[in-house]
Amino acid sequence: MLQQSTKPEARRPVLRPKRLDIFLHATKTVRLLATLIREPRIPLVRKFLFLSSVIVLLLILLFRSLLKSTMKHIKIAHRRRQLMSPMRNF
């Protein structure tokens, strides 16, 4: 039978990256992508998929407010269409 401890577990503090670490991460990512492009053993399809996923994530990161407002306008237009549809009243 296992004994239960009466002491509360010590929580680890939340670690946040330093600003320098974030910039180093960007340079490491660019180096990884450059190495990936030059590597002949990796098929072109996999290279394309990896590069496109990194680009999509970067675009989402940079333009998230634009994306959010666009999605909001799409929802509003969809609601208007639903309200104006004569078939919905029957």
What does this protein look like?
It is a single chain. With 90 residues, the protein is an all-alpha fold. It is built from 3 helices and no strands. The longest helix has 21 residues, at 64-84.
- The run of helices and strands is HHH
Extended strand count: 0
Structural class: mainly alpha
Cα-atom Rg, whole angstroms?
25 Å
Instruction: Outline the low-pLDDT stretches.
Output: none
From the N-terminal CA to the C-terminal CA, the straight-line distance is: 67 Å
Reported for the largest beta sheet, the result is:
none
- As a percent range, the share of strand residues is under 5%
Total domain units: 1
- Return the average pLDDT rounded to an integer: 80
Helix fraction?
55-70%
Discrete helix count:
3
Shape: extended
Task: Show the helix and strand layout.
Layout: H1 19-38, H2 44-62, H3 64-84
In a nutshell, what does this entry contain?
The chain is mostly helical. Helices cover 67% and strands 0% of the residues.
Salient structural properties:
90 residues; mainly alpha; 3 helices
